[in-house]
Structures are given as structure tokens and as C-alpha cells.
Amino acid sequence: MFSTIPLPPLFSGLGGYDATALRSDVSAGLAIAAVGLPSAIAYPAIAGLPPETGIYASIAPLIAYALFGPSRKLIVGPDAATMTVLAAVLATILATPGVTADRVAVAALLALTVGALCLVARLVRLGVLATFLSRPILTGFFAGISLSILIGQIKRFTGVDIEAEGLVAPVLELAREAASIHWPSLLLAFGCFALLQVARVLDSPVPGPVIVVVLSVLLSFLFDFEGRGIAVVGNIPEGLPSMTLPQMGSMPLDTLLVGGAAIFLVSFGAGIITTRSFGALGGYQVDPNRELSGFGAANIAAGLFGTFPVTASDSRTAVNFAVGGRSQIAGLVAAAALMAVLMFLGGVLRILPIPALGAILAATALSLIDLGALKQIWRVSRMEFIFALIAMWGPIGLGVLNGVVIAIAATLVYILRKSMYPHDALLGRIPGRDGFYKLHREPQARPVPGFGACMIQGSLLFFNTDYVQARLLKIAEALPAGTRWLVIDASAIPQIDSTATAMLEELCEELKRRGIALGLAELHGDARAMLHRAGVIDRIGVHMVFTGMEDALDDFEQRSVNAA
């Protein structure tokens, strides 16, 4: 009886686990914790949350994903792009009249919302949403997000409060407030940023953020940075977080759901890109629907332990791969190590300089700008590059939350544009060979006298029927005199809607007036059923609907012989 109960992925993936694998997982877990700690402390600042929430977000969700996530290698945690969208959603919710909720509580509620959306999406198998935002649009969106993060570090670098928004206005405001710049903070920030770049270029065995955190804490202790006016992290609560259900209070449910949906779409899209990238590296398949279970559990755990939404972490997962983590045990070790940090090193982290965190965030933001991918998009498709620029402009010009809307809108426009103008081609025969060939592609192909043949490549739906009808009429006008049939190869038409059925009926009547019979070949089952219900097949004539183009030509030739 009990053997039929499925084990959680953590336990089902431990077959053949031995001491060697344990040593690898312990090493990987400690490395993950070391790399994750700087970003765990830095990322909450993007959304105006206290640093300890970042450590909480690197513990409870990691344990939940280790238990319920399908990947043995993936590590979840705070993500810069997700934090930027979270910051915009928090600003919108907290600006709503009558809302008095605590910022941390709202972030926790949003994490629960994202987790619930993941599980609902898993239930209805909406893992396809992972590909809703195309790679060009995500590349542009993340570039826009990164520029927003960079601008957000002005205060941490200079100590100057900047109220302007956008890309240029904050820089101009900083220029006007140049006299207020705290130069020691600025020098420290630039020094830490330079150190991060040197560590990256030299491929340092110790990650740059770890070097910056350790060195800046040491310098802060030796030279009393706080006493010299350099801002520090401040007190971090010691001990482990307790599990509580955040209270909604006067929270507007619709705003919470819309904000949660925006975070879900961006975090899941970005998370699946990370998951698939490392899946390809590790030689295993990624199932987006199963990943929804792991992401859902991680975000629900985040909400219950008072932190914010999380997703797959590329830097931590990369460390897990590099060090040789073998299973989800590595994630559990990392969580345990961060628990120890909370319990015993809170006093040390208290003097961590804020400019150092700003440098880590600035370096992270730059890593989100994938110039190589943008160049590749430019080479492959100018139109997709334009959509990438639109997605990049959204977060910069209209704010991050509106930028999500712009990215979604750009995706919809991109999809519509691809579908509005389906390709068509005239077909003909090559002497001595079977089958039909596109006339524009095969120089040897010739049209069959009296028998017009063409192919439509794409679904026939309400938004493209006028275009397709115009193209088919233009094709009919160009047919040689004496052409009696025009047969459409429908093998590349997966869907037909009611508007398209009406268009085909009109086309049939118009061609009849011109003395041309309309035929259809290789109809898909669903399309054939739709045309049958609409009465179009009866109007065309059952005898003009063929299994394949060869059958259509055989029938045409037989009728021509009989007519002669």
C-alpha cells in the first residue's frame, strides 16, 4: 500500500547515494552559502526591505525546493529582476489609499500569491507560460531592469537622496546636488566595484562578492566606517525566523493578484531560462510544469517565513555545478550554513558598508545586460531586435511595473504580427518526380496546366482572414487562362475559426463566378470538422476535398479525360 505513495523528489533522487556524494554536496552547499550571502543581504535593498529578509529568502525556499522541486541541481533564491518588479508592485500597493500594511508583510503576501499562482498553473498545466515572454523580449526587458537597478544605486554610492525617476533625470539631479556627495562612500563603492570586475576578469577562485563582503567588513571594523559617515547595514535580528501567516488587513485583493501575476510571469520566465540553461549543461530534461511545483513550494515557504518571492538563482546554481553538487542535499547544507550565519554572525554583518552592497548590486545589474544576445538578435532578425528595444525601454521610460505590461504587450504584438501575414506559395510539379514543389524555390518545378495549386502556411483566424482572402484572389487573378481548379494545400493550416470559414465560403463563390472550382487538400481533423459544421464543405463540394495533393491531381486529370 505504502509503496504506491510517491516520494518527494528529494528522497526519490537519493538512489545510490554514498559518502562520496555527501562530501560533494557538503562542499557545494558551503560554497552556495558563501556566494549567496552577499546577494542575500544586498538584493532586499532594491525593494526597500531589511537585509535579514534576503537571508530568510535563502533558507526556507531552498529547503522547500529541495523537498518538492524536480531538479537535483537547481538552487532557488533572491533574483535581481524579480526584486525590481517586486519593488514596483510594493510601491503601487503601499500607495493605495487606506493601505497601512507593513512593507515586509506585503512582500510575504506577494510571495504567497506567487506560490499559489505557480500551483494553480501546475494544476492546469500552464508550464507553457515559461515561453510566453520570448527570449528577445526577455533580453531587452532584463537590460532595462539592469539600467533601473544601476540608477537605484546612486544613493548607496553617494549618500545623496535622489527623487527623480527615469534614466537621465536622476543623473541630472545628482549633478545639481554634487555638493552633497559623501566622497568616502563614493570612493569605497567604486573601489568595491573595481574589485568585483577584477575578480571576474581574472576568474578568481573566490567569488568577487565574497571578497568584497569580507574585505569591506574588515575595513569597516578597522577604520570605523560608521563613525566616519559611511552608512552600514545596521542590526540584523539574530535567530531563525518563525513561521507566521501574514495578515491581509485592508489590502486590495485585486491589486495583490495583479501584482503577484506580474511577479509570477517575470520570475517564472527568468527562472525557466536558468533552469533550461543548466539542464542543457547537465544533460537532463526540464519539465516546466514540474518546475511549477518546486517554485510554488519555494514561494509559499518564503511567504510563511516573512520574506519575498524567489526564483531560480543563476549564480548559486552555477556554483553548485562548478563545485560538483550531486543532489538537493547541497541546497539543504547551504540553508543550514545560512542559519548558522543568522545565529552567530549577525553582529559582524552589522558593520557591512552600504556602498559595498551598492557595488554588488551594480555589478549584478551589469551582468543582466547580455550584449552578446542583443548582437545575435540584431544579426538574426531586425524586427525581433526592435521588440527587444521596446521591452528595454518599458522599465526605463514607464517604470518597472509598466515595463512588465509593455513586455507582455510587445509579446502579443509580436505573436500577432507573426500570425497576421501567413506565407503562401504557388505549387507545381517537377517532371519525372512525384509530389508538389514550391515554384519560387525549385527552378525545375512547373505549374500544371488548368490546375492551380497553392499552399497557405499558418492558421486561418479572424485577424488574418482579410489578408489571406486578398492573397488568394490575387493568386487566382494571376492564374493562366483556362485554369479550372484552384486547390489549397491545407497541410500547414492547423486551425480555422468561424471567421475563416465565412471567408472560404465567400472565396468559393467568387471563384465560381470566375469559372474556377475551389478545392482543399490535406485538411487537419479539427479544421475539417469546423468546415463541415459551418457547411463550407457542402458549399465547396465533398468531391473537392482531397486526402492529398496527388489525389487532387489524379481526380482533376481523370475528370479532364472524361470531359474530353
From TrEMBL:
Entry's localization field: Membrane
UniProt keyword Transmembrane present: yes
First and last residue of the signal peptide: none
Lineage: superkingdom: Bacteria
Annotated ranges, domain STAS: 441-556
Keyword entries, A-Z: Membrane, Transmembrane, Transmembrane helix
UniProt cross-references to InterPro entries, sorted A to Z: SLC26A/SulP_dom (IPR011547), SLC26A/SulP_fam (IPR001902), STAS_dom (IPR002645), STAS_dom_sf (IPR036513)
Gene Ontology, cellular component aspect: membrane
TM region(s), chain numbering: 53-68, 80-99, 105-124, 136-154, 181-199, 206-223, 256-275, 329-348, 354-374, 386-416
Protein name: Sulfate transporter
The keyword Membrane is annotated on this UniProt entry: yes
Membrane topology, from the record: Multi-pass membrane protein
Example GO biological process: transmembrane transport
